[in-house]
Amino acid sequence: MKEWEEDLFERIQHAKTKDDHISSCAWLMHRFLWIHPFFDYNGRVSRLLGELYLLRSNLPVVDFQSTKRTDFVKAMKEATKSGDLSLLETLIS
Description:
Number of domains: 1
CATH class: Mainly Alpha
Order of helices and strands: HHHHH
Radius of gyration: 12 Å
Strand content: under 5%
Structural class: mainly alpha
CATH topology: Fic-like fold
CATH architecture: Orthogonal Bundle
Distance between the termini: 27 Å
Number of strands: 0
């Protein structure tokens, strides 16, 4: 957990561009579910964390209500399987 926290703070500190923040947001959402898994992906809490991160970064909040749950789950599964966050980053951007 300590390592996760350090990684998060380093990502936040070094995020300068919109793409950096989107990548950090995707990483945060995925890591939260990775360390705190639920059979239903606990998506509401993960999306809330993502929204808070975007607000803190002065970026527009994503309307996750319009995102299909199946797309969210697919992006999370891909990130877990391969480490590739690009599907999740696309949903956020």
